[in-house]
Structures are given as C-alpha cells and as structure tokens.
Amino acid sequence: MESGSTLEYALPLTANEAKALIVRALNIKINGDGRVKPILLIGSPGMGKDAIIKAAAEEAGVESLMLDLSTMDDADFRGIPSVTNTGDNEGMTSNAIPSWFPTEGPGILVLSDMNRAENQTLYSALQLAQSGRIGNIKLPEGWLIVATSDKKGKQLSGSLADRFTAYELVPTVQSTGDNQGVMVNGLS
Length: 188
What we know:
6-stranded parallel β-sheet, alpha/beta, single chain, Rossmann fold, about 25% helix
C-alpha cells in the first residue's frame, strides 16, 4: 500500500452498511444542522459503489446526480469563466453555472471515479467538498457529497482525501435464494 494512500485510514463497510450510512448522513444534512463531512467510498472496480449511492438516494426519496470525473475537464466541472459587463462587478470574472449543477435540493451529488480525474478537476472537487461551492456558485442546502474511488490505480492525495470521511467497501457473499448461486456485494 502506498504511503499517504486513502486506504490507510478508510473504515471497512459492507454494501448495506454503506447505504445505511449515506441515508443517515443525508437525513442529518436535511433535518439536522446540515454539517456533514463528504463521504468517500473506496472499492475495487465493479463492486457497485455508484449503485449503492443510487439505492441510498432512492430509499431517501431524493435525486442522485452522478458526475463521472474521469470524463470531465475543469471547465466542464467549474463552468466557463466570463467577464461581467454590468453593475458593481464590471470587469470581474465569474464562472457560468454548469448545466449539471443542482439548483434546488435535497439530493446526493456523486463525484464518481475521483482517482481517475485530471488534477485541475480534482482541485475544483476539493473546493466543492471543503466549502460546498465552486468559485461563486454554492451548492443548495440539503445536498450531500459522496465520492467514489477505485482501490487500484492512482491514489488521492492526502489533502484531497482528508476532506472526506473515507470508507472501504468490503466484499460480502450471500446466497441469491433462487438456487442460482451467490451474489457478491448485493444490496438487500
């Protein structure tokens, strides 16, 4: 294991435990004081990290917005910068709100495949995770940030990973109940 890897301090969870944790965190975000550290799910490729988050959103009755960071560049993530031509901010630069950005809540914003994203996109994700905003654009109240990262491949830097509470998905095996075999990491 690499030094500084997020896996050194990730807490182990099964798929069902991860789903329950996300639902609890979302409920605190919506009904509590709103202060919930973003969650990072780490696991091997194909373990169902995105499916777990989607199932948690469905159980909570909220939208889940999936962003595949491995396919986005920084301008896709932050929005295109433009110069303001009117008012007190004339000549100032601000970013246009990206088309994907939620305008009302609550919901779960999924930053998928963080470990495969370009560095500039990761820096923007860091700002969003830390402050709930990207530049001058603020995430609406009630939105929980949940990120995913593959266990293999490039590891997230300590400064980025520290903005999240990290959990490592552990494989579970259970009978499918239909005499067809077993299911790994199934959600019940």
